Amino acid sequence: MSATLAVYQRGLLIVKRRVWRELLGLTISPLLYAVAFGWGLGDQVMVEGVPYLSFMLPGLIALSGMNQSFGIGTELNIARFVNRVFEEFLLSPAGSFRIVAGNVLYGATKGLMSFVVLALIGVSLGINPLASPMVLVPVTLNCLMFAALGVLVALVVKTHRDMSNFSTFVITPMAFLSNTFFSIDKLPPILGGFARVIPLTHSSIAIRGYMLGRAVPAYHLLILAVFFVVFFVLAVRQVRLAVD
Amino acid sequence: MSTILSVTDLRKTFTGGVEAVRGVSLSIEAGAIFAFLGPNGAGKSTTIRMICGLCRPTGGSIAIDGRDSGRDHAAFMRSIGLVSQHFNVDDELTAYENMRIHAQLCGMGGRRSAARIRELLDFAGLGECRDRPAGKLSGGMRRRLQIVRALVHEPRILFLDEPTAGLDPMSRERIWNLIRELNASGMTVFFTTHYIDEAEHYAERVAIMHNGRIITDGSPVALIEGIGPWCREAFKDGMTTRTHFRGREEAETATGDGYTRLTIRRTQLEDVFIMMSGSSFEESDGAPARAVNGHDAHVGHGAQGGAHGNAHGGHA
C-alpha cells in the first residue's frame, strides 16, 4: 500500500507544483466546447427531449474524464523515455501491481478534477450535475478505466510518437463517436455498431442517464468495470514486459 | 570476505539480433569497489541494467548474497541501489521529496525515513538544498542526490552507471569523494566507467569489457604488471608501436628501427585494454578491433596526435 501511495503522491505533488497550469488545462477545453456547442445552440435545439446543453454536458464530462485520465499515459511515456523516472518505480521492490495502481489512481484523480470543473461550469449554466449522486459511479469508473488504458498504452508503445499516434487514431475518434455530442442513433449502422462497443459510449450514456434522472441499465456500469479490470490486468502484465 | 554478487554466463541479445552481452561471469566480494571499464557500446550498461532488473537477460543467472534474482523479487530489489547514468530525478519535486518518494516506494515511511533522508542529504552536502526543486540543482548536485536516493533503503550493494559522465572535474572529484566514503563505511560499490583514470585510481578490481565480453579482470596494479609496467612508444611514419617492459631501463635500451619520436612512460589501464582487445577506446566505439601481430604490430592512427597502436610486450 505504501508503494501505491508513493506513486500516487508523486503525481499529486507534481500537480501541486503546476496547479494553475493544470486547472487552466482542465478548464479551457471543456469551456470552449460548452461555449461553442452549448451556448451556440443553447436552448433552441432539443435533443432526446432536453435542451442541447443538458444533453451535451454529460458527454463533455465523459469526454474530459477520458482525456484527463488517459493523459497519465503521456506523463508515463515521458517518465519512460525522456526523464527516465519510471526506472525508479522498476528499481523499487514495489512490484507491477502497485506501480500500476498508483499511476491509475493518479490518472483517475486528474479525471475527477475535470469532473469538478465541469460540474461548476454546469451549475453556472443552471444544470445540476449531481442531481443523482449515482452519477459519481460511472464518472469514477470512466476515469479509472481510461487511466488504466493510458498506463497500458504508455507501457506498450516504444516511442513518444507511438503514444501520440494512439491518441490521434483511437482517442480522438472515440471522443466524437461515443454519444458525447450527438446520439449514436444518428450514426450509420456500421458506425453505430462500432460506437456501441467502445467504452466511452457506455460512460456517456450512464452519466447522461443519471444526470437527466433516467433509468440506467446496469450493464453499462458492468461494461465499464470489465474494461477497467481488463486494462488494469494487462497494464500490470505489461510492466515487466516494458523492461529492456 | 563473502561473495555478495555472483553473475554467471549473463547474455543479452536485443531484438534484431544485436548481441550486447555475450556470456559475462563475475563475482564480487562484499565491501569491494569494483569497476567495469570499457568503451561506449562494450555492454557495460546493459550488464548493470540486467543485474538491476531493468533489462531482461537472454540467458545466465544473477545472485546477490546467494539470493537468485528470479526469486523473491522484492527482497532482491531491496538489496540493490542503482544510480543511473541519466539524471532520472523528478525535476519538479524537491530534493527531499525525491528521497521521500523513493523511501515510500521501498516500503519505508514515517520518522525512520525522515531521519535517514536528513542524514543522507547532509552526507551528500545537500542539506541546505533539501527544499529546492531538483531541476534547479547543478549537474553535480543532482548526481549526488541520485546517489543518496539510491541509499535510502539501505542496499547491500550500490551500482553506479557512469556516475561522473558529463560532469566538470570539480563535481567529478566530489562525487568520487562521496563514493569512497561510502565504500570506506562498508558499502560494496560496482561502477561502470569509460574514464580510464577513474577505474585506475578508485577501483580495487577492474573488469575490462569489450564487444560484450570481459576480456580481462584483476586489480589495476596486477593488470598493468601483467603486461609490463613500462611502455615504450615509438612513432614512425604515422604509426605507433607500443612495447611493454618490466623496467624503465629495459625499455630505454630496447632497440628499435628508425623511429621519429620515442616515449618511455608508465603503462596505463588503456594499454591493457589495447593489448587485450586489439583496439583503442576511441576506435572501439563501434569500430572493429584491429589485429595484434606478435611483438611489433603496427596500427596507423588518425589525424590527431593521440596515436593508438598495438604491440605485444617484450617484458620478461
The Cα radius of gyration of chain B reads: 22 Å
Shape of chain A: globular
| End-to-end Cα distance of chain A | 26 Å
The low-confidence runs of chain B, each spanning 5 or more residues with pLDDT under 50, are: 286-316
- Give a count of the beta strands of chain B, DSSP E runs of length 2 or more: 14
Number of strands of chain A: 2
Overall outline of chain B = globular
Helix content of chain A: over 70%
Report mean pLDDT of chain B, rounded to a whole number.
Answer: 85
User: If you compute it from the alpha carbons, what radius of gyration of chain A comes out, rounded to the nearest whole angstrom?
Assistant: 18 Å
General description of the model:
The complex is a heterodimer of chains A (244) and B (316). By secondary structure, chain A is mainly α. Chain A has helices spanning 2-17, 19-41, 52-70, 72-81, 86-91, 96-124, 136-156, 160-176, 189-197, 199-211, 218-241, and strands at residues 46-47, 50-51. Chain A is 77% helix and 2% strand. Chain A has a two-stranded antiparallel ribbon with strand order 1-2. Chain B has 316 residues and is of the alpha/beta class. Chain B folds into 2 domains: 3-219, Rossmann fold, CATH 3.40.50; 222-315, no CATH class. Chain B is 32% helix and 27% strand. In chain B, helix 8 crosses helix 10. The chains are: A mainly alpha (244), B alpha/beta (316). At the A-B interface, helix 1 and helix 5 of A face helix 2 and helix 3 of B.
Topology:
The complex is a heterodimer of chains A (244) and B (316).
Chain A: H1 2-17, H2 19-41, E1 46-47, E2 50-51, H3 52-70, H4 72-81, H5 86-91, H6 96-124, H7 136-156, H8 160-176, H9 189-197, H10 199-211, H11 218-241
Antiparallel strand pairs in A: 1-2
Helix pairs in contact in A: 1-6, 2-3, 2-6, 3-6, 3-7, 3-10, 4-7, 6-7, 6-11, 7-10, 7-11, 10-11
Chain B: E1 3-14, E2 18-29, E3 33-37, H1 44-51, E4 59-64, E5 67-68, H2 73-78, E6 80-83, H3 95-105, H4 110-123, H5 139-149, E7 157-161, H6 169-184, E8 188-193, H7 196-202, E9 205-210, E10 213-218, H8 220-227, E11 230-236, E12 239-245, H9 248-253, E13 261-266, H10 269-277, H11 281-284, E14 299-300
